[in-house]
Please model this.
Amino acid sequence: MKKLALSVAVAAIAATSVQAKTVYEDDQMSLKLTGEYAFEVVRDTDEDDSVNYKTDNMDLEIHADYNLENGITVFGEMLFEFAGYTEKNDGSYDPLADHWVGFKKGGLEVRYGEQDYAVDDFGIDEQKDADRPERKNDVLGEDDADAKSAEVLVVEYSADSYYLAASVDLPEKSSNVDDLADETDFSFYGEVELGDFTVGAVLGIQDQDGEDGDDAMTSYGASVEYKGIDDLKLGAMIVYNSESEDMAFDTSVEYDISSKFDIAAGVGMYLPEADGEDEITYYYANVDYDFHKDVDGYAEVYGNSDDDQQLGLVIGISLDF
Model:
């Protein structure tokens, strides 16, 4: 799926740690760093947009592990994203994107802090870095929506052939600020390998503040990926919101021409239920070449069927460490 490799390690923090560089280590503690720099030439799909040059994905992750004698590992992580800071001059941008603490033992991992919901693991998208709408999020909801707290609890369990995750966005309340009682989100995600197929399902329940008579927003999703053909990966997913009755689906294909060079493409539709909103078809195609295991060049074109649109493009190079 989007970022999971079930047979190795599925938790996001574990995947990060595998790629990170250890800068300090003793018998019980390790400190690791990982990051990315990228430079891109971009033209978005709005017909009034012209070519833009920008830094992107200027990320830095700091991860600390403490191994206790009972076999439990306690860890903490901070993720900084500086690309947005380079594009803002008003001093209001906070580069600290995510941060959490947690523990893990065997296949179980628990994290608490500002982080993604379990629903964010869901998806089959093969796009690179195109600035196009995330129709999946339009239906399922977003973890960075206004009035959401930064207090997210995530519980994950991974085994050789399956992965389960649940998250809750805990509500914030204040006696000093009347409107600070924000919404709560519950998300559940599961993924299982069945031979050459990987099947995923997601459930999200949002808007749980109970104010103004609002009903809960419940959303569902299902996905499948097939890897039974050498060097080829096929994917499809569908999402549905029971409150708005909006729906979206995506298909994707990726082919590895060589160990360093791959191509991918995808097409999908957003099907809003509300009157006055048009159905939108969106698409993308890209190429990716690994100059080095930590140096990546890519190019992508993308577009949609909305009015007043042009073909978007992005050409970039990324350096990881």
Summary: Residues 12-19 form the longest helix (8 residues).
